[in-house]
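A student in our group prepared the protein record below, which I am reviewing. This is what I was given:
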Amino acid sequence: MNNKNLSSIVGKTRLIKWKNLKFIQDENFKEWIGDGNDKLIESILKYQFADPFKVWAEGDDIYCLDGKHRYLDLIEIEEKGIEVPEVLPATFINCKNEKEAAELVLIYSSQYAKITEQGLLDFTSKFEIDLPSIQGLNLNLDITDPFKDLPFPDELTADKKEAPPVIKITFLNSKQLDAFEKELEMMQETQEFTGIKYSVSQGEI
């Protein structure tokens, strides 16, 4: 067990000009789940702005770690003619650096939107984040199983005229490659993937 002392990185909560917020994640990072956008707007209108933004300050810039969809919906609400305060509360999180702030963006989950597969890939590559190393991460993902529609050995023809399926995966960095290779090693231990073979060459499996 780690003997380091637990400390709080939660700073003060104060009013900010929310329209000046900046964002670490790209536009494709999340997508709405069903009618999540409408539900979030209904929630804001019913309960008002009841939860502060979570933010990280870097110099003169304030980055939103949790609350981007509320930010977007506040703009939409304002465009509908409903008055929104110029300043709203934000709780400042004392992150060590941009990478730690990026990891917190992943941890702060949302019930209204989900992280897209491409958004996650781009985000983790940009900040060189090793997903397995992040404790308490519970992503709401819908990632396609790359093996789902492939024929496995028991589905091949009896005369073996069909060759076993071959997949080539290219990785953007060594951390992605190492993480996936560990997954393959675990897959080889299961009955379904007995006999699976792979090779690693120049960033590809």
User: Anything to note?
Assistant: The chain is about 30% helix and 15% strand. The mean pLDDT is 75. The beta strands are 10-17, 22-23, 30-32, 53-58, 61-66, 87-93, 113-115. Residues 146-205 form one domain.
